[in-house]
From TrEMBL:
CDD domains: Sigma70_r4. This is SigE family RNA polymerase sigma factor. Keywords: DNA-binding, Sigma factor, Transcription, Transcription regulation. NCBIfam families: SigE-fam_strep, sigma70-ECF. Belongs to the sigma-70 factor family. ECF subfamily. The lineage of its organism: Bacteria, Bacillati, Actinomycetota, Actinomycetes, Micromonosporales. InterPro entries: RNA_pol_sigma-70-like, RNA_pol_sigma-70_dom, RNA_pol_sigma-E_actinobac, RNA_pol_sigma70_r2, RNA_pol_sigma70_r4_t2, RNA_pol_sigma_r2, RNA_pol_sigma_r3/r4-like, WH-like_DNA-bd_sf. Pfam families: Sigma70_r2, Sigma70_r4_2.
Amino acid sequence: MGRVDETPAVGGVVPSTPASEAGLSFDEFYHAHYRSLTVQLAAYSGDLGQAQDLVQEAFCRAFARWSRICRYDDPLAWVRRVAWNLATSRWRRLRTAQLFLARQREEHAPGPSPDRVALTAALAGLPANQRRAVVLHYLADLTVPEVARQEGVPEGTVKSWLHRARAALAAQLTEKQGGAA
């Protein structure tokens, strides 16, 4: 009886003997070489589970073509090459995916400053028409006539809203600054 890590000879055939010379069936070929290929791919990839998957896939591809592959001088070389190519392809796909994910990561912006929080809270305390007038005039850079046209009101009404809004914002912001000091 051999060591645990040795591949047992199947049907009296030494595993290193080419399958065409020994007349191995696919099952015998698989059992003779699966373990050694898995060890090779595990050493290459650093992941036993991945190596098992890659070798299994290579053998599946060999099985689909076994009537042709069994006539090769060294069918094991074909399976080994397929397994290594699969490992390289998987590594490239993983690298591409990681690069893509690295470019897609959200960048964290710093939180709003205390002044911005106070201004947002003060704007929220304004009546809706005054808040719209302030946002359109100061943030969207619309003129008073443009705000009046958008809101469907006379220019004097927009001026009144802006005046009241500025007074209310000044009172709220001054009050908050005075209470914080």
